Structure formats: structure tokens, C-alpha cells
Amino acid sequence: MPTHHPDLDRVAVEDVLAALGNPVRISIVRELAGSAGPRSCGSLPIEVTKATATHHWRVLRESGLTRESRSGREKQITLRTAELDARFPGLLAAVLAAAPPREP
Amino acid sequence: MPTHHPDLDRVAVEDVLAALGNPVRISIVRELAGSAGPRSCGSLPIEVTKATATHHWRVLRESGLTRESRSGREKQITLRTAELDARFPGLLAAVLAAAPPREP
DNA sequence: ACGAAAGTACGTAAGACATCGTACAGTACG
DNA sequence: CGTACTGTACGATGTCTTACGTACTTTCGT
What we know:
- Two copies of one chain form a homodimer.
- Chain A has five helices and three strands.
- By secondary structure, chain A is an alpha+beta fold.
């Protein structure tokens, strides 16, 4: 079964938002956005176990945010930046531009 | 205990996204955005029971998306549009501009 | 004062979600 | 070939979410 990547035209914005509405996943997305181009999964700074990471990668992929591919034993993951901006103009940029919350 | 509205500077973007990542809530937000100004809760087209609606209104309020007030026995609810745009520039606009998914 | 209306509080149930450990599969390298 | 490495599959578990019914509070009309 080849890995499935949804057609963005069929994705609802609330599903993208739900995928982004998780601290682990948004940190992955920020990391991917920080380095234009594919990134090997192993190089992502992740604070959960491998099994949990796999789960989050799948949620991101199924929501249409990322694209996955395989090279050797490593998985590569990319943000679908251009496609996302065509489907939801300005959304990803606005999310990525968000300043962190004030602490106290 | 007066109703609490968070200071948006202390809100993390992923919490706003999580609040928006639900079909009932995003439809409330779209409705509020469609009519600039406060809206009485009873006038919102909602497809859940009153108890569930109360739950969603609270999630929206606690995430910083809406402001609530009381007039008589009716509750008024507003989108914190300007504040949100100052804290997360372009985010709400991008979300609201999203086209619905293609059906088939 | 009484009854209807608008929400809320509370308890509860079903389902989704995040997380992990362990076992497994595929690939690379010696 | 055997071992190490990368990630997946599966199953378990605890927590969070969504949803509801019912009972209650407050407020408005009459």
C-alpha cells in the first residue's frame, strides 16, 4: 500500500487547523519550514518516542500538510508549502509568523 | 466568578488552531465573522443541544477567539477580530477565506 | 407571583487522541 | 550473512473531547 497523500482540494481547512493544533506537530512544521526542502525524519528534534513520532507524521501527511518519501532506510518529509499556499492563501505564513506567548 | 477572557499575548497559536479545528466551532466563527459586531447566542444556527453549545462557546472564549457578555437573559458573543489580527496577523483572515473542499 | 426563556452546572457515556513498549520489516554496511 | 539502523504495526492505557439529558439559576413578561 503506497503512502497516501490527499489532494488538497479535498481537504477542509478545519482538518489542517486540527493537525496544527498540537504542540508536537506544530513544532515539526516549524522545523520543516525553517529548512526549505525535504528533511530526513531522523534529523528532526523530537521529544517523543519513535512510535509516537510515526503517529504525528501520519497525521501531518493525512491532513495534507506534509509529503513523505523514502530514500533507503530514511524517510524524508517536506512541507507542502506551495500547494498549501495555493489552497489556503496566507494561512501557513500566518501560523509560522505567530510570536510565542508571553510567559508570566 | 466573572467570565474569564484570556490576554491574547499569553495565548499560544496552537491553542487557537485547536479551537478552530472543529466543525461546530469554525462554523460559529464564520457566522460571527459574517456579521460584524456582537451576536446573541440564540441567534446562531447551531446543530447541537444547548449544553453542547455552551461547551463550544467556552472553548472559543478560553482560546481567546471570542468575547462574551450578558444582556438580560441573553448572552452576546463577538469575535475578537482586531485583537486577534494584532496578535496573529492575517491568521483569521486566511482561515475565513478558505474555500470549502471539493466534494467528490 | 408565575411561567416561559436562555444559558449553565453536573454527571455520564462514547469515541478520539497521545503516548508508550515491544515486535517486526526493510535497508545498509561490514 | 549478520548486525545495526530507521521507521511501522499492533496493542494497551490513560486522558481529553464531544455529546447528551436533566436539574438549576437568572431574567423577562404577564
